Amino acid sequence: MTAAGPLIISPDALLIKLIGMPDSQVLFWRGLLVALGFLAIVLLRNGRHTVEAFRRCGGTGMGVALLFTCSILGFVLGNQYTKGGNVLMILAGAPLIAALLSRVFLHERLPPLTWIAIALCLIGTSLIVFDDAGPGSWVGNGFALLAAVSLAGNFTLCRTRPGVDMSPMPAFSGLIVATLALLFSLPSGGIALPDASQAGWLVLLCLVLLPLGFTLIQRGPLYLPAAEVGLLLLLETVTGTLWVWWVLGERPSTLAFVGGALVLGTLLAKGLIDLHFERSRRGAARRDAAQDEPGARNC
């Protein structure tokens, strides 16, 4: 479920290029439509209990919404002030940041296999964006770091309320982002209406793909440590690069192919190993349960 989220939102960078609007305009429509999309999903899932779904999130949910907002703003502003490769490289550190936050605040210990996977994926992501990275601006790099820390903090904060689904809260994030974008656009004339082509791409991206994908990602901490959710989020970097190549013909470098293969191979290998251990654990549990049955003890 968590891996499906990044795959669904992976055309994000491609569709932003196809929309071709200024950042403030994209942020406004993105925030507004994403809020409507999340609200529609919450209504479909909860029906008349929608208000209760929001209420269950409580104060922690508002913190999740604010962190989600910071990650969006950090990502967009980071791309505005520094190279895109720098932003992606810094964002790739989100799983490591999440692991450290979880260790300090939640006392969660990650197995060595997860640390190895994080290290390999960091190397792979660095190779993908190597050609587009550079010194950049410390302001832009700072915004990218804000995005990475906010993303990791979001997943870690979700883990503090086990069993509580925080996926409704990004609806508030969309409204906050739209309001801020509107305020920043006022000196330059306000928000313009998109043309028919731009509107179509905006609806597809912001009303469908982003709410659906981030709903799945936001539910990830219900079942996985925060670092593992961040690790699976790196799938977007790999598949997003492929989308741009397939549709716009922007062919990745050889290093990017090697890096993408390293990220995908690492996640696949880790998933298979985790599956093997999970099956072994369940088999051992079934054998122990069978031995504890009264008939087994009498025999």
Q: How many structural domains does the protein architecture include?
A: 1
Global morphology: globular
Q: Give the overall pLDDT as a whole number.
A: 87
User: What gap, in angstroms, lies between the N and C termini?
Assistant: 43 Å
Give the biggest beta sheet. Answer: none
Unreliable stretches (pLDDT < 50, length at least 5) are none
Structural class: mainly alpha
The number of E-state strands comes to 0
The SSE order reads HHHHHHHHHHHHHH
Rg over CA atoms: 21 Å
Question: How large a portion of the residues is in β-strands, by DSSP E?
Answer: under 5%
Helix count, DSSP H or I runs of 4 or more residues: 14
Helix content: over 70%
Transmembrane segments: 27-45, 57-81, 87-106, 113-130, 136-157, 169-193, 199-217, 229-248, 254-273
InterPro entries: EamA_dom, EmrE-like
Keywords: Membrane, Transmembrane, Transmembrane helix
Domain EamA: 21-129, 140-267
Features:
299 residues; mainly alpha
